[in-house]
Amino acid sequence: MTTTQQHKIGSGFGAHSTAADVLAGIDLTGRTALVTGGYSGLGLATTRALAAAGARVVVPARRPAQALRALHDIPAAEVADLDLADLASVRVFADRFLDTGRVLDIVIAGAGIMACPETRVGPGWEAHFAVNHLGHFALVNRLRPALNPQGARVVSVASSGHFLSDIRWADPHFRRGYDRWLAYAQSKTANALFALHLDALGAGSGLHAFAVHPGSILTPLQRHVPHEEQIAQGWITPEGRPAPGFKTPEQGAATAVWAATTPLLAGRGGAYCQDCDIAEPATTDDMLIGGVKPWVRDADAAARLWTLSSELTGVDAFA
Ligand SMILES: NC(=O)c1ccc[n+]([C@@H]2O[C@H](COP(=O)([O-])OP(=O)(O)OC[C@H]3O[C@@H](n4cnc5c(N)ncnc54)[C@H](OP(=O)(O)O)[C@@H]3O)[C@@H](O)[C@H]2O)c1
C-alpha cells in the first residue's frame, strides 16, 4: 500500500491563518458537520467557522448544558448527549443520529483530555486511550452508514504530543505504571494511526481521513497542568500570557477545518497535517516546531491498532 508523502504542498496558508481564512470562498450550505468537543477551545472556534460558512454543526457533548451556553449565539449548531468514555453512550448517540437519516459530510474528532491523573473508564481502560482514541474509533465506525458516499472527510485531531510515545503494544492501558504525559502521547499517536487506516479502508467508498496537529494553544485542555509547570514547559510567561509561537483558538482550528474542506487534499488521503499544509517529517524533538514522526506513518501499525481497537470496542464498520 502506498501512503501520501509527508511533504508540504504549498497551500497558501500557514501557522497564522485562521479557520475563517481557510474557509473564505468555501460555501458549506447544505452540508452537515459533526465536531466532538465543539463547545470548547479549538472545537468552539471550529464550530463557529463551519457554521459561518453555512454548515449545520452537530456538537456531541458530555456536558450538554455547558455546550448550549457556549453555542447560544450559533443558531446552526445543535447539541446532543455523548460521553466518549462510555461506549453505551456512543452507541445511543450514533443510533439516534442514524435514525434521523441525515448525512454527514465532515466529522472532526477533536474532543480530548490531556495529562490527567490516572483515571480508569469502562472495563479499566486508561482514560486518554479510551476517550481520545477508543471513543472516537467507536463513534466513527458506528456513524459510517451516515457518511456521505459522495465524499465525506474525517479529521482526527492529533498532536505533536505523539513525539513522546508510540503505541505501547505490551501495555496500552498502563497497568504496569502510569505516566500522564506518555498516556496523552500514546493517545495522540493512536489518533494519527486511526486516520491513516481509516483512509485506507474508506477510500473506495468516498471516505477520506486526515490527522492534524493544531499547534499550541492555551485552552481548558491544560486544566490538569499546574501554572508553574506551564511556565517551566515554556507555554506561558510568568504573567500567564501565551508564549511566543502559541496560536489563538481561531488559528488552532484552521488546520482541521482546512483538512476537512480543501480541494488540495484530494488524492492525498491519510496525510498528517500541520499549519494548514501537509506536515514535513520531524527533524527535531521540539514539539512546538512539530512535524511528523515515523511511527504515526506506519501502515502496519495503523492496521494493528485498528484490529486492537475493534477487539476492545466490539465495533468495526469495515469488517
Ligand atoms: N490546545 C492545544 O495546544 C492542543 C495541541 C495539540 C492538540 N490538541 C488537541 O486538540 C483537541 C481539542 O483540544 P482543546 O485545546 O480545544 O481542549 P478543550 O478546550 O479542553 O476541549 C476539549 C473538548 O473535549 C471534550 N471532552 C473531553 N472528554 C470528553 C468525553 N469523555 N466525552 C465527550 N467530550 C469530551 C471537552 O468537554 P468538557 O468541556 O465537557 O470537558 C471539551 O469540549 C484535543 O484533542 C487536543 O488533544 C490541542
Automatic annotation (TrEMBL):
Q: Which UniProt keywords apply?
A: Oxidoreductase
- Please, which domain of life does this record's source organism belong to? Bacteria
Q: Does the keyword Oxidoreductase apply?
A: yes
Q: Which region is the signal sequence?
A: none
* Molecular function GO labels: oxidoreductase activity
Answer yes or no on keyword Oxidoreductase. Answer: yes
Under the heading InterPro entries, the entry gives: NAD(P)-bd_dom_sf, SDR_fam
Q: Which NCBIfam families match?
A: PRK06196.1
Under PANTHER family, the record lists: NAD(P)-BINDING ROSSMANN-FOLD SUPERFAMILY PROTEIN, RETINOL DEHYDROGENASE
Q: Which family does the record assign?
A: Belongs to the short-chain dehydrogenases/reductases (SDR) family.
Query: What name is this protein filed under?
Result: Probable oxidoreductase
Q: What's the source species for this entry?
A: Goodfellowiella coeruleoviolacea
Native organism taxonomy:
Bacteria, Bacillati, Actinomycetota, Actinomycetes, Pseudonocardiales
